[in-house]
């Protein structure tokens, strides 16, 4: 590939996606983001729409059950600290934490997010109304996972001058 396009390309992520009884939806955005989604059923248009939604909204997983306990506990501890700083009574703080946790879960799960084409309905409600389920999705983004080296340009120039 290097000889053909003149770029040093390395594959960091690879996923095999297939389905026997469902439908595969794909969406590509500006040659930077690509999404594959597998739905039960045969609604190819819905699969493409959900793939487009995933590209735009970056959900971490399909449903709340797939969120790790560590992530939920970390977020809850942050919300507890923020709520305590507000100086409100404990019963109000508890309600604040429950509300913030629900909002967080809806933001990071596909089924909890408002559907991008119809914000009045969540993706979970949409797939339920169509008698289907999201079985799997994969989202790829160019440069994803690359750690950028944090250099200090001034120090680098000074080091070269001193040599």
TrEMBL record:
GO molecular-function term, one example from the UniProt record:
translation elongation factor activity
**What InterPro entries does the database record attribute to this sequence?**
EF-Ts_dimer_sf, Transl_elong_EFTs/EF1B, Transl_elong_EFTs/EF1B_dimer
Query: What span is annotated as the signal peptide, if there is one?
Result: none
Q: Keywords, A to Z? A: Elongation factor, Protein biosynthesis
Q: Where are the transmembrane segments?
A: none
Annotated Translation elongation factor EFTs/EF1B dimerisation domain ranges read 2-144
Protein family membership: Belongs to the EF-Ts family.
* NCBIfam families assigned to the protein according to its UniProt record, in alphabetical order: tsf
Give the HAMAP family listed for this entry.
EF_Ts
**Record-given protein name:** Translation elongation factor EFTs/EF1B dimerisation domain-containing protein
Q: Which organism is this entry from?
A: marine metagenome
Q: What is the lineage of its organism?
A: unclassified sequences, metagenomes, ecological metagenomes
């Amino acid at each position: 590939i290097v000889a053909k396009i003149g770029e040093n390309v390395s594959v960091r992520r690879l996923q095999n996606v297939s389905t026997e009884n469902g439908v595969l939806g794909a969406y590509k955005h500006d040659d930077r983001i690509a999404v594959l989604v597998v739905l039960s059923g045969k609604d190819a248009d819905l699969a493409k729409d959900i793939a487009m939604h995933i590209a735009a909204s970056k959900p971490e997983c399909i449903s709340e059950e797939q969120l790790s306990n560590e992530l939920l506990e970390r977020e809850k501890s942050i919300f507890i600290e923020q709520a305590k700083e507000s100086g409100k009574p404990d019963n109000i703080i508890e309600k604040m934490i429950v509300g913030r946790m629900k909002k967080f879960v809806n933001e990071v799960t596909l089924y909890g997010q408002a559907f991008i084409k119809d914000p009045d309905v969540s993706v979970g409600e949409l797939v339920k109304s169509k008698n289907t389920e999201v079985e799997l999705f994969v989202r790829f983004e160019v440069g994803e996972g690359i750690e950028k080296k944090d250099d200090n340009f001034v120090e680098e120039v000074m080091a070269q001058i001193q040599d």
